[in-house]
Design a protein that fits this description.
Layout: H1 30-39, H2 50-58, H3 61-83, H4 86-90, H5 95-121, H6 129-137, H7 142-161, H8 166-199, H9 203-230, H10 234-254, E1 267-268, E2 271-272, H11 273-291
Helix pairs in contact: 1-5, 1-9, 3-5, 3-7, 5-9, 7-8, 7-10, 8-9, 8-10, 8-11, 9-11
The protein binds fe (ii) ion (FE2) (2 copies).
One fe (ii) ion (FE2) binds at residues 78, 81, 108, 111, 212, 216.
């Protein structure tokens, strides 16, 4: 599993596999991540979806339906993380951090553009961008709404009201960078990418999705860097643990596909619930070790 704990630098930073060394990992700082962003530009608008459209039409209705949950979770998720990000941009502590955070906001808008293009050109959802988002929302479950419309919106609003509130910034980065991006997005990306590669389908989407995953690793690397600094303070470490415990139940529910309830075994796109949960929690717990935190009991 090469992308389990990228912490980025695309091939020049080795994937960390030695658990005993996780506590002493040197992370890229916001300026290094900003420079990496400059080297990793891409354009969502030039991706060729012509083969994707043929693939989609040739797929069975059952296969399309199954894929919809994962695709819609990303389409709506990218819109949510793009529009609920301004509070963190306001909360920068240095010019380098401000520059990096601006790049992340642009990235999330670009990711949402990619999915809007996919829904319009391949899935052939007519109407406006907003109407396509509304249609994608009907594929999602209550846990998804709790995480993206309640937890995420709340941490962003709190930060907008007081960008100098350090505890609010820790709450935000735990919810957004650790749980939504680090645990859910990178897990979804791993399995959906593997599925498309194995089935030889949707090459245009795959091209964009790989670039999105590369961007996500940069974002998660920033969040890990931030928490590694701040969680040296025992009070903030406790704060981060509490926020994880509060948001992980909803995150666990997001991994459950339609037709199942939390705690039930399922298979989604050929992968078992056990495989997916193991990937998600291993990735999360390794990042927490880098930060110097343990996984809260709620996730065990
Ligand atoms: Fe994104
Ligand atoms: Fe992201």
């Amino acid at each position: 599993m090469p992308s389990l704990l990228d912490l980025t630098q695309q091939g020049d930073v080795a994937t960390i596999t030695d658990e005993s060394k996780l506590g002493s990992v040197t992370l890229m700082d916001p300026q290094e991540l900003y420079r990496l962003w400059e080297r990793q530009q891409w354009q969502s608008g030039v991706i060729d979806f012509s083969q994707d459209r043929r693939d989609w039409e040739e797929m069975s209705e059952e296969q399309r339906q199954e894929m919809m949950y994962g695709l819609s979770a990303f389409f709506v998720g990218e819109e949510r993380v793009a529009t609920q990000f301004s509070g963190l941009v306001m909360a920068y502590d240095s010019q380098h951090e401000e520059a990096f955070l601006c790049t992340q906001q642009v990235d999330e808008a670009r990711h949402a553009q990619h999915f809007n293009n996919l829904y319009e050109q391949v899935l052939q959802y007519d109407g406006t961008y907003e109407q396509r988002l509304d249609a994608a929302r009907t594929d999602l479950n209550d846990a998804y709404r709790v995480l993206f419309d309640e937890h995420l919106v709340e941490v962003n609003q709190t930060l907008i009201e007081n960008p100098r509130d350090l505890e609010a910034k820790v709450d935000y980065i735990v919810t957004y960078h650790m749980v939504i991006e680090g645990m859910l997005a990178l897990t979804g990306q791993y399995f959906q990418t593997d599925y498309m590669e194995k089935n030889g389908i949707l090459p245009g989407h795959l091209e964009g999705f790989r670039k999105i995953a590369r961007d996500e690793h940069r974002h998660v690397a920033y969040g890990t860097w931030y928490l590694q600094q701040k969680c040296k303070d025992p009070g903030l470490a406790r704060r981060a643990q509490d926020k994880l415990a509060e948001t992980l139940p909803a995150a666990a529910g997001v991994l459950v596909p339609p037709g199942y309830t939390l705690g039930e075994d399922f298979t989604y796109m050929g992968y078992t619930s056990q495989e997916q949960n193991e990937f998600a929690y291993t990735a999360l717990s390794r990042r927490l070790k880098v930060i110097g935190l343990g996984l809260p009991a709620v996730a065990a």
